[in-house]
Every structure is written in structure tokens, then in C-alpha cells.
């Protein structure tokens, strides 16, 4: 995934991918939102961790496809095998569980309607999976996006799209891939823009320390704004064209991380490489272990939050890694069709 | 061949559906909360045509204050609310089931809490009789003055999840209530609004009980007759908005269209 032209490895992006998946997993922990008064700070840092993933996806897409010949059907075929097939596999079990527990009745849906709805919106049972239907829309429009990168006005499009991303919110419950696609578009294009390079990127690179300092400061200023504000996190039509403080924070965070990793962490770090290599598997699997942990935790009397957090981390992360390892051993090279890695 | 009568009927149906005219229907309301949601307010309202309640066996019987399931022997705001809903055409018949218990914190409605037994009894009657609800009104909060906001939110989500498993996805209309006996908790007030903002598929904005000053209360906490009527009006305004809000949220989540799939 992080392999680049000339066989070089983009270690900075590999490391960043590891950080992104850890953020996504942590953001789905129930314990991190119970940290008393600090819960709002944790929420600001972790919420919308998907933004990192979207940015990385855009960057890698351009890096791997933008400079070389791009075969659309070949690209879609690969994405179908390595992204959509695992999504079908995991969704099948999630939806089956939903039907067994008659979740469809809770939403007032027939079983068929529930199955179709779950497949299309993605994250009805396993919350994290809403991402896949959305990212598939990016795959579908990829030639158009590549076309834009070759035009002089690409920078204007990126700025407009990023502005929209920070002035809009996720759809309710992440249950509308089209609206999510528009909401996250800015960060995908920003990733492509960063990968394309050019005058603006050269300027930013030449002053990367200043950019990092400004980004970090901006992030903390927005944290203060967030703590004193209404703390809205979702609602596409309710809050359209209103400032999304979390996403603005993520904009600074992404820029900060990009230059931090490019300047100082562009080297192989074994644990990060390992996590990055199985990141897609972790993405698919961790939601299930989180659900199991939540069920199990309801029978546990854990009063200390640190203990609860440690248990959740050990349970969700370790079981996710173990299950991926077992799947890879059993399936060998075919594991990518099932668990995405 | 379509007869003239059938053609007229078809035309009327299509015309009404285009106008989006809804016919007033029977509305069932479950009320959960503390004393203010129960019979602990000053005035007892008498029977009103079209306003009913579920009795302890789940049968529909005429309603009047005090309501059968709820605490205390005074009155509530549910009779004037029911009357308002019928007069406005929002419902042709309203059946309430207020199960509030005085002084309860939200945590006390969870497993092991002192209100859990009553909740369970009510839910088992609901299940046995196959009763469905159109709204759950959550009117509670002043008993939680001092409870950290995130704990309150977490507990209310747990309660919602528990009740949802038994009665399905019903809009929960959450009142802002954190003022009582001269004490006011801004954090609980804030979190009651945050819950609505952050889970719009499940929670809907209810009335602001905190906005009623002592002119509307007889003991600086519970409502006098003027307060009960005012509160009923505020509840009505909130409930009136739920339908439209629910539809827009369901459209955003695509549920609106998938609910139309018949098989």
C-alpha cells in the first residue's frame, strides 16, 4: 500500500497509517468517553479520526496512480477484491446477527429492507463499517478526481472542498454514504494535492517547522473553542455551512502529522509497520470485538476507569490482532479477499 | 374496468397523498421521569373526551388525575396535553402511560435501581398486551443535580437502549428539567440538549421546564395549575415538531425510503 515509484517505501505514510488506525480504534472505545471532565477533550482529539484515513487514502491514490498510467477497470477490480469482498463478508455476519436479534423491527423495517439498508449505509450493526460504502464512491469517481489534479484550477477546488468539509457535518449516524462522501471530499482531495506537490507544497515544505507550530497552535485554540461551544458532532442538513470545530481541528492535526512524519518519522518502525500492514484487517475486525467487549463489560463491575480502559484495550486490540493473525495463517495469500490484509 | 366511483376514490387518495394530509390517529404516549412527570403537581384535571390511559393490566380506560401508574395523588400535565392534541387534530384519541417515580435519578431506572422494578413491570404489561407507543416523554433531571454530565448522558443512553429493546425505536422527547427548590444545574440542562443534538435519530427536543419560574410552581419545584397548563402547551409544541423532524432525519439516514419496501 505504501510502496511508491521506484520501489521506495513511504515510511512516513506507513507510520501515519498506523497512527490513523489506532485513532479509529480508540475513538470507538466506550471507556474513553467516560473520563469525567476530560471526556470532552478526548472526544475532540479522537472524534472524526476517519479524516486521517480519508486524507491518507487520497494521498496514496494519487501517489500510486497519478503519475503512472491509470487503468480504471483494473483499479475497480482490485478495490472490489480487497475492499468490497471483505465488506460483504463482515457485513453478512453483522446483518445476520441484526436479523437474529430482530434489529429490523426496532427500525420498523422488513428483513429485506433491513438487509438492503445495512449494505448500503454500512455501519448499522458494526458502526465502523459505514466507511466502506463512502470510500467506494471515491473509487467510482477516481478518473474524475485524477482529471482535476491535472488542471490549473485544482488548488481552487481543493480549497473549496476543504472549506465545505470544515463547514459541514457527518450525516446522522453516518447512515448516508453520499452525504459522507461530500463531507469528507475535502480531505481526500487535500491528500491528492499533497501527493501531487507543486509550488504551494514546496513553500510549505520549506517552512515545515513553522507550519507544524501554527498547526499545533491552531489545534489547541480550537480545542478551547470546542470546550466552550455546543459540541455538535453530526447532522448534515441541520448544520450545513456551520463551522465544524472538530473537523477544523482535524485539518490542523492532519497537516501537523503529515509534516511531523515526513520530517522526523520517515523511517521503518517495526511495530508501526506491523500495525499499518494489518490496518485494514483491524478496521474490519475491531468493531466486532468492541461489541463483544461491551456485552461482556455489562456483566463486570469495574469501578476504576483506568482498569476499564486497560481491559478494553487489551480485549479489543489484542483479540483483533490475534484473530487477524489466525485468519492470515489459515487463508494465506487469500486473506486479503476476506479480511482486507 | 374502473367504475366512476373507483376513479373518484382513486383521485381523492392521490390528491390527499400529494397534499401530504395525514388523518388524525390514536396516539400512545409513555411517560418516564420523576415527580414532575407524575401526579405530584397541584391541580387534578378531570376526564376529557378522547383522553385515556393504560391501566395496570394494560387495558385502555378513561383517564383523569391522578394517573394509575404514576406516583403521588395530585395532578399532572397529561390531561391538558391530551385535550390540546385532540383539539389541534394531532390525534383523535390519546392514551397515556405515565410511570414516573418521585425523586428518581436516571441511574435508578437502570438494573438494580429502585425504579427498575416498576419499569420492568410496565414493560412486561406492554409486551403481554402488544402495546406500541408513538412517543416516550422523558421528564426528569432535577434529582440529578450535581451528577456529572457525562454520567447522566451515559445512564440515559443505557436506559434508552434497554427500553428500545422492549418497545422498539420510538422517538424519545427529552424535556429540559434541572431546576427545583431554588437550585439549578446548568450542566444537566446542557447535557439534556446535547443528548438531543448528538443522537437525533432517537432523541428529540422537548420543552424547557427550567424556563417556568415560581409563578408557575406551587412549592418552587412542582407545578401549579397555571404551570401544568403552560407545561402541557410546551409539550404539545415539542410533540408537534417531532413528526416533521423525524421525517427529515429518516430521509437523511435513508430509512424513510427503505421503510417503504413492503417485503
UniProtKB/TrEMBL annotation, chain A:
Q: Which GO terms describe its cellular component?
A: plasma membrane
Coiled-coil ranges from the UniProt annotation: none
Query: Topology versus the membrane, per the UniProt entry?
Result: Multi-pass membrane protein
What biological-process GO terms show up in the record? Answer: enterobacterial common antigen biosynthetic process
**A GO molecular function held by the record:** O-acetyltransferase activity
Pfam family membership, one: Acyl_transf_3
Give the record's keywords alphabetically: Acyltransferase, Cell membrane, Membrane, Transferase, Transmembrane, Transmembrane helix
The portions of this protein that span the membrane are 9-29, 41-62, 82-102, 114-141, 153-169, 181-199, 211-229, 241-261, 273-294, 306-327
Domain Acyltransferase: from-to ranges: 11-322
Keyword Signal among record annotations: no
Where does this one sit in the cell? Cell membrane
Asked if Cell cycle is a keyword of the record, the answer is no
Where is this protein chiefly located? membrane
Name the InterPro entries for this protein: Acyl_transf_3_dom
Query: What protein family is recorded?
Result: Belongs to the acyltransferase 3 family.
Q: What is this protein called?
A: Acyltransferase family protein
Q: Source taxonomy lineage?
A: Bacteria, Pseudomonadati, Pseudomonadota, Betaproteobacteria, Neisseriales
From TrEMBL, chain B:
Q: Does the keyword Hydrolase apply?
A: yes
Recorded superkingdom: Bacteria
What are the UniProt keywords, alphabetically?
Answer: Hydrolase
Signal sequence interval, chain numbering: none
Domain Sialate O-acetylesterase stretches: 50-235
GO molecular function ontology, one term from the record? hydrolase activity, acting on ester bonds
Q: Does the keyword Hydrolase apply?
A: yes
Q: What is this protein called?
A: Sialate O-acetylesterase domain-containing protein
Q: What is the lineage of its organism?
A: Bacteria, Pseudomonadati, Pseudomonadota, Betaproteobacteria, Neisseriales
